[in-house]
Amino acid sequence: MAPRKTSDKLVLGIPKGSLQDSTLDLFARAGYNISVSSRGYFPTIDDEQMSVVMFRAQEMSRYVEDSVLDAGLTGHDWILENGSDVEEIAELVYAKRQMTPVRWVLAVPEESKARKPQDMDGGIVATELVNVTRKYFADKGLKVKVEFSWGATEVKARLVDGIVDVTETGGSLRANKLREIDTLLTSSTRLIANRRAMKTDWKRRKIENIAMLLIGAIGAQGKVGLKMNVPRDALDAVVKILPAEKSPTVSSLADAGWVAVEVILEDRIERELVPQLKRAGATGIITYPLNKVIH
Amino acid sequence: MAPRKTSDKLVLGIPKGSLQDSTLDLFARAGYNISVSSRGYFPTIDDEQMSVVMFRAQEMSRYVEDSVLDAGLTGHDWILENGSDVEEIAELVYAKRQMTPVRWVLAVPEESKARKPQDMDGGIVATELVNVTRKYFADKGLKVKVEFSWGATEVKARLVDGIVDVTETGGSLRANKLREIDTLLTSSTRLIANRRAMKTDWKRRKIENIAMLLIGAIGAQGKVGLKMNVPRDALDAVVKILPAEKSPTVSSLADAGWVAVEVILEDRIERELVPQLKRAGATGIITYPLNKVIH
Amino acid sequence: MAPRKTSDKLVLGIPKGSLQDSTLDLFARAGYNISVSSRGYFPTIDDEQMSVVMFRAQEMSRYVEDSVLDAGLTGHDWILENGSDVEEIAELVYAKRQMTPVRWVLAVPEESKARKPQDMDGGIVATELVNVTRKYFADKGLKVKVEFSWGATEVKARLVDGIVDVTETGGSLRANKLREIDTLLTSSTRLIANRRAMKTDWKRRKIENIAMLLIGAIGAQGKVGLKMNVPRDALDAVVKILPAEKSPTVSSLADAGWVAVEVILEDRIERELVPQLKRAGATGIITYPLNKVIH
Amino acid sequence: MAPRKTSDKLVLGIPKGSLQDSTLDLFARAGYNISVSSRGYFPTIDDEQMSVVMFRAQEMSRYVEDSVLDAGLTGHDWILENGSDVEEIAELVYAKRQMTPVRWVLAVPEESKARKPQDMDGGIVATELVNVTRKYFADKGLKVKVEFSWGATEVKARLVDGIVDVTETGGSLRANKLREIDTLLTSSTRLIANRRAMKTDWKRRKIENIAMLLIGAIGAQGKVGLKMNVPRDALDAVVKILPAEKSPTVSSLADAGWVAVEVILEDRIERELVPQLKRAGATGIITYPLNKVIH
Amino acid sequence: MAPRKTSDKLVLGIPKGSLQDSTLDLFARAGYNISVSSRGYFPTIDDEQMSVVMFRAQEMSRYVEDSVLDAGLTGHDWILENGSDVEEIAELVYAKRQMTPVRWVLAVPEESKARKPQDMDGGIVATELVNVTRKYFADKGLKVKVEFSWGATEVKARLVDGIVDVTETGGSLRANKLREIDTLLTSSTRLIANRRAMKTDWKRRKIENIAMLLIGAIGAQGKVGLKMNVPRDALDAVVKILPAEKSPTVSSLADAGWVAVEVILEDRIERELVPQLKRAGATGIITYPLNKVIH
Amino acid sequence: MAPRKTSDKLVLGIPKGSLQDSTLDLFARAGYNISVSSRGYFPTIDDEQMSVVMFRAQEMSRYVEDSVLDAGLTGHDWILENGSDVEEIAELVYAKRQMTPVRWVLAVPEESKARKPQDMDGGIVATELVNVTRKYFADKGLKVKVEFSWGATEVKARLVDGIVDVTETGGSLRANKLREIDTLLTSSTRLIANRRAMKTDWKRRKIENIAMLLIGAIGAQGKVGLKMNVPRDALDAVVKILPAEKSPTVSSLADAGWVAVEVILEDRIERELVPQLKRAGATGIITYPLNKVIH
Known about the structure:
The structure is a homohexamer. By secondary structure, chain A is of the alpha/beta class.
């Protein structure tokens, strides 16, 4: 076959499945509108220099390495599992819910006597992450039969000797009455790129651009804009209440006795500050949602 | 049994069921992110001093009174029905749709001859609000058999003599061809607290804090922020158009001939004002959504 | 029968079906809250001078012409098909996705030998747009039997000789392996009004008002507000980066060395500018969502 | 175009929509297995001489007349509406639920003063069955504007002067508080055929065959097989209990004192007879489901 | 009010909710076809002497006692809870799955120290079955606050001291990590009747008739009819394999060397017998489904 | 770890996913009732000697080989892919729809120039069946990079050079505009068993028993029982119409002039015969459904 021809568009892979909706929402706040028709694997994007393909996170890095994709979003875990030779451009960690780092843990039934990885020796362990798990046991000199598990790994824990499964908070393990023995890997979402694509100037700039906009959109998660009117003589008191690292935008008002103060806050902090700000003399306090925050 | 131990967290009950989504959304705009897994009764909240439990609105006040919860959201109707001894912290009335006050009415089929409560004497009335209804008839000296109705009360109106059912606009009664005879009770959503919890300083402060933030978030419902650029000599005319009780924030622009005017408006008013503002000389009019408004 | 009485409210028809959600959302951003109960054809609106009815886009113009409705939203295609004598108040074209103009095309199976409208002569064509299609062929002097197609027209292309079907991007035609031969009509969403209603002063003003607010809400689609702090001596450089036709709002800050700059941008442009603005010295760049933009 | 080529298969149209599942089930009991993939308009059938296409009942007769289909199932109402020249092979009336005859009625709001068709004179009537309705009023010499209603006709009754809508039991009219004024048409499901196809021998035989099997399957609806053991001397008493027109199958048993009696009964009758049969001496009474009953 | 008028139809209550589908299916096999429209509480039945109403099992017995219903299906547990004075006509216990008897148990978290009912003294117990539970503790001389639980009782076990909840197999308790302490009640489905209705001759006969047909339909659950051809000289061997209490129907065949043997078997037994029957010489063994078995 | 203990029950694996419902239905007709709770991987079965676990077909054979399961249902394809050393007990091929044999084919886009496996040399092929595909190309001496495809393989055909995907009728390939180049494998469903389990007497007997009952249930698919009454002098003519290999059961009737004839027929044949039988003099023809047919 002739060598794979480089596309004249930047081909981006986004993950199909549980992360799909939050990924599309993230791109929308970053400024890219991606439309997915039902059952569609080839969404449209409102950027003529790009095309988008959906892959499962598990297989993404293979197709980036093979030049099928120029770049893609996937987890660090699956890059390792596939042993893919790709470039990691940015780590995308949300302050909240989706895309938080996950852990792959060795777990056994609560009632099992196993307490340490060595107790798996001679046994069977089921996992979706076969290669990482085999290397983990081999590095410890343990002889463990690692079987691929096609989903629903947690229910297999009582059929074999242990499982290696992914968890965010440990909640699903507890719900299945499993006990963690060890953590093999902590993994977060990454923007990865094909090494050849990164040597093409316009593609590298575009990928870096996307990285910056995604990080800006992630930075706006869990943040709000807050505006208030403050009497000029209360300004110092108000500013002291605000977090030191935030420099508020203070603008003059027509009424010379007052200034308008505007600041970006994490909503966890904002909910503590509002009562204090009011007491310090601020009025007309409003908060509004943000799309993107770039420092 | 030993006396119930006070939790070191503030335990908050939020209503499961039809109000659930709007409640979660309200808390999000107030600054609290609550995550509910499917079928989950123990959501997580991003505040380490709090834990959240879901109960049906109907049973909430019992568990607040019993110290199972420190505070909770429920309707005034169910507090009365349960005869619960709890503290009402705040009334939470939305300007729109959800959490509007509801009425409990005595209703009969359109074709019934009954015209007043007395016409129920000697008959059977079905309701979810058994105790309030029994007291209502007893206070009038009427002998009515009040049967508990496990949902779908409106369809029972033609099987018994009348029903006492909840309605917002009366629409569902009309749709079932029922006629209202009397209103027993008007009820709105309340933030309630356990009396013992309110005697613990940090819990009382926290509950009051939540009340203020919820009221601020409710205040932003149906409001928008409006910004426009106004020629300095048209400022008076523009300000006169705005509602008298709103003091706009007027800020200087680099171009000395213009000022920026910003104001928070109810959207019902806003849609009337926009054409007038434009005619008065305002340009670059934009409106944007709000999370919270605290006067 | 007595002549149809004019309602004392403005009766507005909105399209039931695929455009329903985006229409309700558009009205919400325009400032009108419309609530639809499930299976409801008579939504409520928070404007006491209006009532709302849902009709299919296909039949809307008939009922506007008949004075059943004072105004309504529908497509230009169905106004033509019904031959309705109504007034077109405004064209409502979204920058994105929904309510983009659509095309009605004559299409045949990819494997068909037909290449031009004349190749349909003596054959059968299925379509939902019967009258427009009959006129199209008659104008060309062709004898074609035009059969009404009750939905799923594309699957009939292989049963008859050709179809006239609606398409946005041509994607569904290609997915069904059909080939376009000709375009009969390009159609977009219109706000239409009954001619008699437009002669009543308050109704005409109200309809024009709705038109302006809908256009403003459409104008905010795909736009964001962008704010940033700029050193006074970098202002010129920053302004030069911004699109020429946009005049940014520049306001003084308390710190005399800095100004605040605010501008409304299309998000397609914004995502290109952010990196450049940052390089030019802007800090604290944030973007936020908009409800409405009125120039 | 060349004249439409006759397919070498019998092309059968079955109705898409509310009757679809009961139709497929009917064919299955008749002996034909039709598989529909989701969104599929071209089901497969396990008979190599046939192919199946799905159409809406409303358009079926047009495509049968046009030779697109050789035969199809649709309602008598839509044959009339379309004025199609097709052959009606069989009436398919189920003893129960689906495919019962329906009525098209002129209906008005309960509160309307209209009492007879003449009260519509000069008014507007909405209906899906436009041609039949126009003819109905014209035959009475009435001038009524008949507007096509694209579904949900019952909700239009209060917007225009009356509707012509389909009903089975009148229940949906009552639920919408409408009153019937007149019945225009009673309609049942028909198997129809193209006149040209009926002149091809093998097609005509096949269509007649299908008609017989469908009628046999319909005949088994709501019937059960009943078997019992009866002492020889109680046989007369048992047979007298059975409906006169049913001749039971009486077979000898090894035990000469007993016979086995088997009979096909409507389940409405069966539930009355079982207690009587038991009292008359029958034992081991069982009933079993049937696929097809051919007299 | 005038005394409640007896309906001229037999009014039957069937349970809305989890048992609904299996109840409708049971009636269908008994010979009664009940049609439920979506959201319908007034199904239709193909018996002109009956009308059907849906109630929750929890409230059924109240409305039977009040003469709103003549008869109904509900659980023994709810009859006790409501203290209803009604007549129990028949116990309806399925051999399989639905309508198996259920148990109401006192349960605590696995980690609780409570081991016996006495350990609840002075505590709070949540349950849907408030009255039965209160009586249970009172009979033991224990002071327990019994709170009504509006669904999802199992999740409250960790919020209060214990729960009284319903379980079939104990599986849901184990899944929630709860431990059973005691069984308060075992309950099965009952056909109940109003005492006054049972004094009306035709109603009593009809209710008894329904009871017999339902029991016949339940008897056919998990049973199949089995037919086979047996050489006359192998008949004894074959009959010996069959369960002693089943008398097979042996009928003569045209071929004098063979007989046809037919028998009704539970499918649990049938699957053991088939291999043995084949070995004993039976051929052409078939099994078929049954609707009803009346001994 | 100690050697894996043999369960005292027969542990059977049934496939989770698309075949699940048809498998449960098959077991039900075979006489085994398996209940699956939602999200349940451990169904219950009404046989105390058995327990059931759900696995994906893809991983089934691994767990049978590892003695986690004694037996299981899976495809021949996945046994090969996993290279599992298990015993194949029975091939389970349905006459209709589900569980028909499938083919794994090498396919390319219609527009591709590739015509034979050799044209993949040096390219990339995506598939779920990695090992079988690698062996296939290696056996031909071709160098092809085979990448694992995590579902939706058909959409990858245009991203890489070709795919190896599963198909029943080729329909999904044509729908995706792919062209078959070669067939790698034809595969059907198998009942497989662990070699050690087959050496335990009671387990082997039980597994063979299950095989026989499943085959009997499959044999009844697409068959019906047909009964008719035939005049004794028409018997020969009727029997001649019936398929030669079927020996009908002819039984005497009380009326000596008639016999009852019963026969099991494939429904494809039955629908052809019924008209002929009627013409030959048969009356009272009925057909009824079957659970199981064992020759």
